[in-house]
Design a protein that fits this description.
The complex is a heterodimer of chains A (296) and B (275). Chain A is an alpha/beta fold. Helices cover 33% and strands 30% of the residues of chain A. Chain A has helices spanning 43-50, 91-101, 107-115, 131-143, 161-176, 188-194, 212-215, 229-238, 262-271, 286-295, and strands at residues 5-14, 17-27, 32-36, 58-63, 76-79, 149-153, 180-185, 197-202, 205-211, 220-226, 242-248, 251-256, 276-283. Classes of the chains: A alpha/beta (296), B mainly alpha (275).
Chain lengths: 296, 275
């Protein structure tokens, strides 16, 4: 099988608002794919289309190389937005309904309830659960039947820090067991911790897509000056020590080329007869990069 | 197999749903109370004997006629469980985990047919009970002579619930759906019926056509039969009440309505936002 999911030119509008525009993504087996973007960037809309809740205006998608069909979704474990179950049914009965839909036995119920620490509450009605527990039940339901693919939309929403850590651990475990994961999140660190690949969305546009390493590398910005800034800059740029240099308040600001360290810059300048009188590293955090990406 | 699966899903949902238990309980209680109360009423009316209506084969016409409004309770059940799926967003959940939109609707339609079958069986059993306790002469032939009246009752029951389902799909909100259904059944159609009292079209209104499936038993004919009058009165001279369409035409008309409503329900389901 070539890939798990292929999205081509997907678009969806709500009246005048374009939720996603010509989105194309493809996801290979075993990838942990993050959909990263601020609120309202089209993440949930995308996942809702992929799970059959919404219909796209134009474009196509295919799961497992097949045209979409309801039965296909029995092989995918999904949690879209907040989980919705029958409030008057207990957890076990709610999960029985899901098992029946997925054409699987009830044996998995105990397993997933224990996995999400809800086993003790299995006889409680869904409406009596706290927000965090409801969220965990949503994850439990997604895990039913050990599906090959997990589609999780903001799975740590509404959880306390301990809950967040646990859920992340569960997800990472699933990924390590070879599952393909599609994770929507507005929390950069979450995507960074869990995902191998990422697509960044903003206002329905795909800003960037690729491996997390490629897209979200930590770049080092340096601030420096010398008695002859012009010469220094020419030297550094010609020899591929820095790029994207600019002047800022009388000092030079530039990006260190990959593999270069701040000391290398100093050594290089000194070796070429330029004495640097000011040299500061301004590490650009991932958060800053992400914000920059979505700001433009 | 798919239908069996849909029934299994629906079964978990409704058997544990307290309003369902209450409404179904009310339905059964109404029938049982009927069994107790009709004979009591009869004792207070000296001249006309209602118990004639409890005898085979007339009990079939009587029971299907008098229990026809009970179907409103069944329609309310269907409205509540359907609008609940919208307000709990559980239609969405079922789609996410692998049901098609059309299957969501098929679930409810299958449920409607099952409930109608259950109701028909209950009415059938009650009729047998009344018949056995009130008939002077019981032969298998007389017992089953009018048993076919259960068929239009079944159709009528399905129609009530299908109309309820359709309103629930359109309106989505529980309270508004119930109001619309009751308003349509008890106000809108009766008023239209009055407005069009001179026109034949009034017999074609869906609720009216539906109630005509289980019409008021032909009392005059029944009493005449009882009196053993050698010379039957000319039926046309007694035709004070307008009768509407013949039963077969009515059944055809109502089946047509049900088919149209089911068709449009699937169309709506294809497009409807699920929450």
């Amino acid at each position: 099988m070539s890939n798990i999911l292929e999205i081509q030119q997907l678009s969806k509008s709500y009246r005048s608002v374009k939720a996603i525009k010509n989105l194309s993504i493809h996801i290979d087996p075993g990838q942990a794919f993050g959909l990263l973007g601020p609120n309202g960037s089209g993440k949930t809309t995308t996942l809702s289309i992929l799970t059959g809740i919404l219909r796209q205006d134009t474009g196509t998608y295919s799961w497992f190389g097949e045209t979409p069909s309801p039965g296909q979704r029995t092989r995918i474990g999904s949690l879209i937005e907040t989980p919705h179950f029958y409030p008057y049914l207990n957890l076990e009965k709610n999960l029985r309904i899901i098992c029946t839909i997925k054409n699987i036995g009830f044996d998995d119920i105990e397993l997933v309830l224990k996995e999400t620490r809800l086993f003790e509450r299995r006889k409680s009605r869904f409406k009596t659960l706290s927000l965090g527990m409801k969220q965990r039940l949503g994850i439990a339901a997604a895990l039913l039947g050990d599906p090959r693919v997990l589609v999780l939309d903001e799975p740590t929403n509404g959880l306390d820090p301990e809950g967040i850590a646990e859920v992340r651990e569960t997800i990472i475990e699933q990924v390590e067991r070879g599952k393909t994961l599609i994770l929507a999140s507005h929390i950069l660190s979450e995507v960074e911790k869990i995902c191998s690949h990422v697509a960044i969305l903003k206002n329905g546009d795909l800003l960037a897509a690729g491996s997390v390493k490629e897209i979200l590398t930590e770049e080092e910005v340096v601030e420096f000056s010398s008695s002859d800034n012009a010469k220094l800059l020419r030297l550094l740029e010609e020899n591929n020590v820095v790029t994207e240099a600019r002047k800022e308040n009388g000092v030079l600001v530039a990006l260190l080329q990959p593999g270069m360290k701040i000391g290398d810059l100093n050594t290089f300048a000194f070796g070429n007869g330029v004495v640097i009188d000011h040299l500061v590293s301004r590490k650009k955090s991932l958060e800053a990069q992400f914000l920059e990406l979505v700001k433009e | 197999m798919q239908v069996k699966k849909l029934i299994r899903i629906e079964q978990v949902k409704i058997l544990n749903y307290i309003p369902f238990q209450i409404l179904l309980g009310l339905y059964v209680v109404a029938i049982v109370l009927g069994l107790v109360i009709y004979p009591l009423i009869d004792k207070q009316i000296p001249v006309i004997s209602l118990s004639d209506l409890f005898r085979f084969p007339d009990v079939w016409s009587f029971m299907t006629w008098i229990t026809e409004p009970y179907n409103i309770l069944l329609a309310l059940i269907v409205i509540m469980i359907t609008t609940n799926e919208f307000s709990n967003h559980t239609f969405k959940t079922q789609v996410i985990f692998g049901l098609g939109r059309r299957e969501l609707l098929t679930q409810k339609i299958v449920l409607i047919f099952l409930l109608a079958a259950l109701a028909t069986i209950l009415i059938g059993l009650t009729s047998v009970l009344l018949g056995l306790t009130h008939s002077y002469k019981i032969t298998p032939g007389i017992m089953v002579e009018n048993i076919w009246k259960l068929l239009p009752y079944f159709l009528s029951s399905v129609t009530y619930m299908i109309i309820g389902l359709f309103i629930a799909l359109l309106v989505k909100n529980t309270a508004m759906s119930i109001l619309s259904f009751i308003g349509f059944r008890t106000f809108v159609e009766p008023v239209l019926f009055l407005i069009f009292r001179e026109k034949e079209i009034r017999w074609f209104f869906p609720m009216r056509a539906n109630t005509q499936l289980t019409p008021l038993p032909d009392l005059i004919e029944i009493f005449q039969r009882k009196m053993n009058s050698a010379e039957p009165v000319d039926p046309s001279s007694l035709d004070i009440l307008p009768k509407g369409l013949p039963l077969w035409a009515n059944a055809l008309l109502v089946t047509g309505y049900v088919a149209i409503i089911i068709f449009f329900s699937y169309r709506i389901m294809d497009r409807k936002r699920l929450s």
